[in-house]
Design a protein that fits this description.
Length: 343
């Protein structure tokens, strides 16, 4: 029976990965930051099956202790300040966790158990101002946010430890992946939550930023399987994990509303664009300039050919089903809120 240590275990990816590893018979250890109130987030339903360790990515001593306690065969570093917009507000904090935190974890592995296999959660945001379409493992990086820059450091330090110390360390360059467990501060979940509230007359409209931004969206459940596959190979390497399809934020909005039988009709351009309910004429989508990034990433689309070939990775959940799952889940959650408020 293998031991696995997961940082960021209470997040979207951490929870799906924990479920996957438990199904495969692993002893799962998860790092949690000490808070005044203990919250298990997305692993609340499996918390009894997980061994939790209090540690912090900015505290090397605590990570060394976590390594000694868990003695992991595999380490998955999913901990991050992962909200791009916030990285402009807290650039140093983002760097502490997303850049130096990776080094802290790698050093803890090197000191305690250098034979452990390490997975680093890299991101398509490292491509930023894209230098090629689609983006692959050989595409030059050009990050456009403090988040992307910090993640690029984490990506390269992982490669450096692999080459310097012969450690089994690899990075998954994951493109946008969402799910029912995504936090509401992310645009996809913001959309599906708002669609559910508008449908159930709890909210009038949603305000969004750049509707023309294009992203390559997949489901988190498929993507954590790719993480596991990377650590099962004979030789460590880095892989792009994506769908090779791109869609605008506008398309995501249209499909989400369609899931609740609302057809969006657009008018105007730029910040004056408005989306109306075609049946009623009610304004349900508005543009708010405050939601535009200081430096925009216009298009991301990944080429997963290497992962498909070398890992045998397959995607099971297509884009339309991803959106439908998120909307259906939020419809249920909003209905529960309404019922509770009326009691």
């Amino acid at each position: 029976m293998k031991n696995a240590l997961i940082t960021g275990i209470t997040g979207q990816d951490g929870s799906y990965l924990a479920e996957l590893l438990l199904e495969k018979g692993y002893n799962v250890y998860g790092i949690m930051r000490r808070k005044s109130e203990v919250t298990y987030g997305n692993v609340e339903h499996i918390k009894e099956k997980i061994h939790f360790i209090y540690a912090d990515m900015t505290d090397p001593i605590s990570l060394i202790s976590a390594m000694k306690i868990s003695q992991p065969d595999e380490v998955y570093n999913l901990a991050a300040q992962s909200f791009v917009a916030t990285s402009w507000d807290t650039p140093l904090g983002t760097a502490d966790i997303d850049a130096l935190g990776v080094t802290n974890m790698l050093e803890a592995i090197r000191i305690v158990k250098p034979e452990a296999r390490f997975y680093q959660a890299s991101t398509s945001e490292m491509f930023g101002l894209v230098q090629a379409i689609p983006q692959s493992e050989t595409t030059p990086f050009y990050p456009r946010s403090p988040y992307g820059v910090a993640k690029l450091y984490g990506h390269w330090i992982t490669k450096n430890y692999r080459e310097s110390y012969n450690m089994y360390a690899c990075s998954g360059i994951l493109f946008n992946h969402e799910s029912e467990r995504r936090g509401k501060e992310f645009v996809t979940r913001k959309i599906t939550d708002a669609v559910s509230r508008i449908k159930q007359n709890v909210q009038d409209h949603i305000e969004l930023g750049n509707m023309d931004a294009k992203r390559d969206w997949g489901h988190s459940k498929d993507y954590v399987n790719a993480m596991w596959l990377m650590l099962q190979q004979e030789t460590p390497d880095d892989y792009v994990i994506a769908t090779n399809e791109t869609r605008t934020v506008r398309e995501f909005v249209e499909i989400a509303f369609r899931c609740v039988d609302i057809e969006v009709e657009w008018s105007g351009e730029g910040i004056n664009e408005i989306g109306k309910d075609k049946a009623t004429g009610k304004e349900i989508v508005k543009i708010n300039p405050q939601f535009f990034r200081p430096a925009e990433v216009e298009i991301l689309i990944g080429d997963p050919a290497k992962a498909d070939t070398n890992l045998g990775w397959e995607r099971e959940i297509p884009f339309a089903e991803l959106v439908e799952r998120m909307v259906k889940n939020d419809m249920k959650l909003v209905a529960k809120e309404i019922k509770a408020a009326n009691l």
